[in-house]
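Escalation from tier 1.

The customer reports that the assembly of two entities below gives different structure tokens on two consecutive runs. Tier 1 could not reproduce it. I'm attaching the input and our single run for tier 2 to review.
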Amino acid sequence: MAKDTITLMCASGCSPCWMVALALCEKEVEVTDYRELSYEKQEHKSAQVLAINPRGQLPAFKHGDIIVNNAMAICLYLESAFKSRGTQLIPDDIEEKAKMYQRFQEADTLRQKIGNVLFYDWMYPEEGHRSVFAVKRNSDLLSAEVQLWETYMPKTGSFLAGRNFTMADVCAFPCIAALVNYGLSQKKYPKIMSYYNDLKGKTSIAKTWPSFWINAPQGNTALKDI
Amino acid sequence: MAKDTITLMCASGCSPCWMVALALCEKEVEVTDYRELSYEKQEHKSAQVLAINPRGQLPAFKHGDIIVNNAMAICLYLESAFKSRGTQLIPDDIEEKAKMYQRFQEADTLRQKIGNVLFYDWMYPEEGHRSVFAVKRNSDLLSAEVQLWETYMPKTGSFLAGRNFTMADVCAFPCIAALVNYGLSQKKYPKIMSYYNDLKGKTSIAKTWPSFWINAPQGNTALKDI
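Tier 1 run:
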């Protein structure tokens, strides 16, 4: 395979896929073979995905012969493989770098806690297998998580790790946008909402915005009471 | 605070704490203020932890005035802050680096799936809130995960990302050791067992081995049927 071939398989509306698309856009790296797949049609379990990602999950990513599939691993890889291209996503300053790594990894915690609430019924397709106690626990854990992120939010003009847009924003913004898309209370979380509003028009973010959300009927407010 | 002061609060037997202790040992960085705390005594919710880690979780880490608490973020930070000291935990070679980042992030998935099985009763302290369907699902997910890791295991003399011991091993070994400590089937997972046996005597690993496991009564086989 040509050294500069980049294959990316994604599903629209999937936060880890958005993280990767956003990192690629910031790094000004062109995807030569982009395939948008559908979870609904079970395409994440198709042979083309399994050939790259044995988990049968999206994203699935290949650069030349190098395969990386975990979204956060792909982001770290991209910064390293294309160090001098586009935006520098890992700051040089050690204090900013420390904060960046911390928020970057915590974004994954936020993502999972959102997933545990939004996808609970999908995880337990049989109604009789669902538990009100688990639903309550997942919801409480997400509330506590979002309250914590409310305290992490930067002032207008700043970003999660400091003065610059970094990998922390690349991985947290898609999660924050998911919260807002699913009806997060603007009154309860004004700082999260400001961060969202400040960043939603940024070129790389607007360019990679999931068509799934643009086209979806409005009014899914699954997270309004978080 | 002196620039080189390193505070680390840990609990023995906690995998993320072991990851950090192991990274510090490999980087030959001395912890100047080490505090071993007890989850049982709820010390992770004490003022000394909350002052550094608002999640009230362990590890809690401070280097001079720089605070990082997520174990994987601490590992990435340490490699950067002490680049020229001790073992190089992020390889230069781009292929090894890609594999390292992938396994490093996947170690967190393994850790969580182990936790969902081992700590289920702790998550749902009231017996009436527990669900046999959730227990079954958690167990099935862990089985699938461990089967995947069985395919990831390197040959004797190699490591998870290639020829060298890297950050991937730092974060995966404590999880692998947890599997073995809780009775993983040697017959079903011979490659995982080989990796464990090859690495358990490594100086940094032996030196940081949790006293909790050494002193615990043998025979907790909670993971024998995974």
